[in-house]
Design brief:
It contains 5 helices and 5 strands, in the order E-H-E-H-E-H-E-H-E-H. The protein is an alpha/beta fold. The chain has a single domain, classed as 3-Layer(aba) Sandwich (Rossmann fold), CATH 3.40.50. Strands 2-1-3-4-5 form a 5-stranded parallel sheet, sandwiched between helices. Helix 1 (14-26) links the parallel strand 1 and strand 2 (31-35). The longest helix is centred in the last third of the chain and has 15 residues, at 110-124.
């Protein structure tokens, strides 16, 4: 499988963005935009119209839940995968109720993150 759509990767930690970007490149991703907080993510989203967003839950300035709300007001088509280091059931349920397509814990082994992203992409997009 090769995913060639535009991706927006949102996390306040640069090392996490780098780690997830490497995984996305294994899926064939070539167009990855990054943002360090939800407010910047909204600006990039409006400018670049990504097809897939990987969105951290806990960030300064604007968290992932509020960012997800705003993204869903702008578009219901974009696929959103929440990233979290704390799998609080209430937060996960809230994100899914707001329209997140999946969630991934950041401490999940790399191969499992890759498999989860492959499955989400396969379910949500037509890819080669």
């Amino acid at each position: 499988m090769k995913y060639e759509g535009k991706i927006l990767l949102v996390d306040d930690e640069a090392h996490v963005r780098k780690f997830i970007a490497l995984i996305l490149k294994q899926l064939g991703a070539t167009t990855i935009f990054e943002a360090a907080n939800g407010r910047d993510a909204i600006e990039v989203f409006q400018r670049e119209s990504p097809n897939l967003i990987l969105l951290d839950v806990n960030m300064p300035i604007q968290d992932g839940i509020q960012t997800l709300r705003e993204i869903r007001q702008l578009s219901s088509d974009c696929v959103v995968v929440m990233l979290t280091s704390l799998a609080n059931r209430q937060t996960v349920e809230e994100a899914l109720n707001l329209g997140a397509d999946n969630y991934i814990r950041k401490d999940t082994p790399k191969d499992e993150i890759l498999a989860s992203l492959r499955q989400t992409i396969a379910e949500c997009f037509t890819v080669d």
